[in-house]
Structures are given as C-alpha cells and as structure tokens.
C-alpha cells in the first residue's frame, strides 16, 4: 500500500511539473522562420513552466483565413501571430484577450509608437514582434550614370523619373495598393485615417498624393501596377524595366538573397516633408480568448524573452524588422557598419508611427484600392474617386 501511495504521489508531482503547453500559430516565413523557431526552442529550454508549440500557417492572409476557420469549427491555438491591421477586427469580434494584467512593468526603452501597435482603446491586446517601415529602393548604377543622388523630396523623385525614363523603361513604379499609397500620404504629413482611427480619404494630403501619382503616370515616366501585379513590380525592377520604388524594408533581404542582382541596389530613406512620418506595419502576438490564465502568462513570458536585446538583434539581422528597444541598438552597430545603407534605412525608426487600427479595415480597404486603380490606370479624377471611396467606407462604419 505504501509503495502504491508513493507511486501515485510521484506521478502527481511529475504531472504538476509538466510545462503548460501554448499552441502557437505563426506566420513568419523565410528568412525569419528559422530564427523564430530557434528562439522558441531556446525559450522552451530556458525554463520549465511553459512550452511554446509552434505551427507555421502561411503568410498573414493565409494564417488569418485558417484562424477564422478554426474559430468557427474549433481547434484555434492559444497564441496567434497576427498582422497589426487584423488586430482591430479580432478585438472588435471579442477574439483577442486583453493582456495588461499580465504585462507588469516593461523596460522604459521601448520605442513608444511600437508598443502602440498592439493597443486599442488604451488596452494591450497585441505583443508586437515584427514591425517594418518602408524604404526607397533604386537602381544605383543608373542613378550614377545620370549624375543623380538619392531623392530627398518627392519633387526629386519626379525629376529623377523623368531623366531615367527611356523608350524601354519607366523611371518609377507606382503601386495602387493601400500600403504604398499610405506611405506617400504619411510622408507628406497626412493620413488616410482620422484621429479616431476612421477612414479619411478626402483630406488635402490624400488628394494631393493621388494627384501627384497620377501626374507621373500621365507624363509616361511611371509604370502603374495594382496589388495583383505586385510580383511584376519586383520583376520590372530587377530586369531594369523600372528604376525606383517603395517597398517594406523586409523586402531587402529577400531581394538580395534570391539571385544576383545585375546592378548595385540603392536603398534610402523615404522622402519626407516637414512633419512627415513613415508607417509601421507588421505582426503582433495575440492571445485568444479561451486560452487559460497560465497560457496567457506563458505567452507574455515568451514575448518578454523575444524582447531581450540580444534576441531583438538576432531577429533584426535575419528579417530587417525594426529593433523594438533602444537597448538593442548597440548590439547592431556592426550590422549597420557592415553596410551603411542599413544605417540610413533604420534611422527612420524615429519617425515611425502606427498607420492603421480601424476594425473595419478588412472591409473598406478595397474601396480605396479600387479608387486608386481607377485614377492610375483609368485616368479618373482623383478627388472624385476618393470621395466615392469615402462614401462607401462611411456606409460600412455606420453599420
């Protein structure tokens, strides 16, 4: 009998010491996937309370669709890696768990706007891990051949596009997707959402930005591409059919690692007017309602591990996401020194701001992209198409 009691007690103790499993669906593809999953293994080995169990579920869009299906049918994870524009919808639908009570005191050296990427209505629902900014890519060889420097203003961009355009190539790539358009608007000190996070397409800066892009296309010095043609935009640039364009900084390692580039890649800060900003986009960890208290604590403990300066530096080197804390910057000095272009691009961190948190974004963004395409490919009046998109967006917001 005594032996049986000891056996039962031993099994109970072993069960009590078993780490809490936290199923984690993530959307970090190459080159970040290997680094993220490596840090998960390091976290699991560093303590015995929690065990993060990762599953790669595709890119942001694929992962979001899989999550929605799992929420309907069951089987959703405790922790999900969401794109920050999807976070507002998750909060509105009461899917995301507020995490303030688990966070406690955080280090004081986080870039404030970065933590804001995970907050809605003053509460923390997301734990940002991979935030990116846009950069200006250009063909440095062609610029040098024409005596051009990296553009500092949008007027410089128009001038360079004029001088670079030939019968076989256009100077600039204009993309009629919401992200690329928003880069231009924010860089001019404007926004496509108002102070309450609601769509605002008809403000002066938005109209001015679309008129500017349409003028480049009308002058035949820019190639217009829509979101469905995004892969062609990259191909045009690499095949020297265009010479300039805006893209997230995370495209940089993907471009340079895919194949030899037939020219020197120029990378510069996005041209900004006085008061201009650059948008923060990217991903955040979200604990789903239904997770246990211990799973929520485990998710926060994992995020704190990822936010250690050495781990931030490791993540930045692999993905080119922004360093979340100032304490990581000294660890990246050699990274910046190895390639001065990185220092210029990453210096934009001081001007970065969250660009979008409206829960209705998943509905109204298509109205704006339709307006952009009609103006840039169909030559429609910029103000009129933006006014129509605004009316359609307002109808969604009033529901």
TrEMBL record:
Q: Name one GO cellular component term.
A: cell envelope
**Localization of this protein:** Cell envelope
Q: What is its main location?
A: other
Tell me which UniProt keywords the record has, alphabetically: Signal, Transport
Q: Which Pfam families match?
A: SBP_bac_8
Q: Which InterPro entries match?
A: Bact_solute-bd_prot1, SBP
The protein's name is Sugar ABC transporter substrate-binding protein
The answer to whether the entry has keyword Signal is: yes
Record keywords: Disulfide bond included? no
Q: Where are the transmembrane segments?
A: none
Where does the signal peptide begin and end?
A: none
Give the superkingdom in one word: Bacteria
Q: Which family does it belong to?
A: Belongs to the bacterial solute-binding protein 1 family.
């Amino acid at each position: 009998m005594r032996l049986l009691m000891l056996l039962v007690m031993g099994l109970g103790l072993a069960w009590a010491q078993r780490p809490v499993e936290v199923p984690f669906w993530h959307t970090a593809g190459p080159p970040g996937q290997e680094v993220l999953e490596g840090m998960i293994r390091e976290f699991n080995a560093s303590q015995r309370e929690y065990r993060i169990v990762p599953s790669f579920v595709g890119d942001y869009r694929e992962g979001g669709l899989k999550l929605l299906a799992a929420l309907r049918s069951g089987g959703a994870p405790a922790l999900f890696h969401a794109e920050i524009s999807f976070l507002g919808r998750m909060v509105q639908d009461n899917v995301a768990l507020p995490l303030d009570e688990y966070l406690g005191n955080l280090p004081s050296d986080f870039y404030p706007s970065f933590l804001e990427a995970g907050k809605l209505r003053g509460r923390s629902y997301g734990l940002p891990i991979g935030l990116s900014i846009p950069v200006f890519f250009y063909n440095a060889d062609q610029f040098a051949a024409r005596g051009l420097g990296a553009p500092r203003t949008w007027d410089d961009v128009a001038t360079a596009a004029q001088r670079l355009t030939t019968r076989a190539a256009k100077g600039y790539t204009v993309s009629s997707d919401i992200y690329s358009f928003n880069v231009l608007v924010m860089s001019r000190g404007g926004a496509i959402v108002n102070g309450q996070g609601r769509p605002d397409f008809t403000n002066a800066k938005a109209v001015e930005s679309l008129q500017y892009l349409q003028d480049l296309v009308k002058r035949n010095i820019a190639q217009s591409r829509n979101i469905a043609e995004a892969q062609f935009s990259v191909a045009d640039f690499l095949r020297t059919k265009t010479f300039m364009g805006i893209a997230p900084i995370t495209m940089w390692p993907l471009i340079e690692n895919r194949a030899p580039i037939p020219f020197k890649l120029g990378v510069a800060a996005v041209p900004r007017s006085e008061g201009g900003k650059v948008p923060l986009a990217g991903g955040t960890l979200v604990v789903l309602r239904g997770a246990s208290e211990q799973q929520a604590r485990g998710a926060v403990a994992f995020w704190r591990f990822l936010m250690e300066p050495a781990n931030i530096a490791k993540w930045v080197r692999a993905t080119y996401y922004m360093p979340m804390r100032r304490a990581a910057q000294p660890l990246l000095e050699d990274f910046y020194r190895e390639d001065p272009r990185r220092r210029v691009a990453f210096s934009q961190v001081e001007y970065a701001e969250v660009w979008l948190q409206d829960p209705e974004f998943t509905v109204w963004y298509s109205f704006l992209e339709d307006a952009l395409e009609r103006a840039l490919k169909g030559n429609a009046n910029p103000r009129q198409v933006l006014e129509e998109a605004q009316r359609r967006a307002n109808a969604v917001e009033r529901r």
